[in-house]
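(Fold this chain)
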Amino acid sequence: MGIDQAPAEEIVTVAVEGGVGTVTLRTPALSRLAKEQLLAGLQGLSADAAVRAVVLTGSGRVFCAGQDLGEHAAALEADPATAFDTLREHYHPIVLALAAMPKPVVAAINGTCAGAGISLALACDLRVCSAAAKFATAFTGIGLTFDSGLSATLTRAVGSAQASELILLAEPFTAQQALDWGLVGRLVDPGAVLSEATALAARLAAGPTLAYAAAKAAIWDAARPALPDVLADEQAAQSRLGRSADHQGAVRDFLAKRSPVFHGR
């Protein structure tokens, strides 16, 4: 007789009301389970003909803080050569599920948005942001480069000069700066983010979704190189950097709350 297994913890929830599907990340960082549940939720909404628009949001004071670095540190310890397989297995399908969703997707950025969290937000079509939200690209702070499509989507959103500032200096920035640079479309009071995003999604859900899908495809097609090629190039760079002493030491330092020291190797 088999042993009954407890169901997996529900850390990504999906709700549908009035033609709008809402996906909520209920954990600050993206563990393997969170990524699996997020991908499944997005794929389910994409296939559901009753859903005509989608909202992606977080919970509490965090929209998405990016990769779970504790889990990443364990993957590096096990085998640095395979630690970035999660890009191909999880992040790439998630980003493509958002970008290629045949219906509009609104990001409701309720709080902190960092690392791959920015990638998720920029893979959505529209972004409603809390005026109190904080942003950080974070990647170079641990010896890495862009991933999850961010080299293309961030550059497209803010321009190459500002993208260079944000990725090379990795300085935190505010919601107002994100609005000024074009990274988000509108700011609202912190308590109104989800309601504003849901109202916007409901407006889209009542519109010509076939036309929206065609417009989405045209916008993404106008970006060159194509997003799948960008994702592959980013993964190659991250996998190479993931084997460096700089990155592995920086992850240990981050988890130990120490400032990393980089040696270029």
Notes: The mean pLDDT is 91. The longest strand covers residues 12-17.
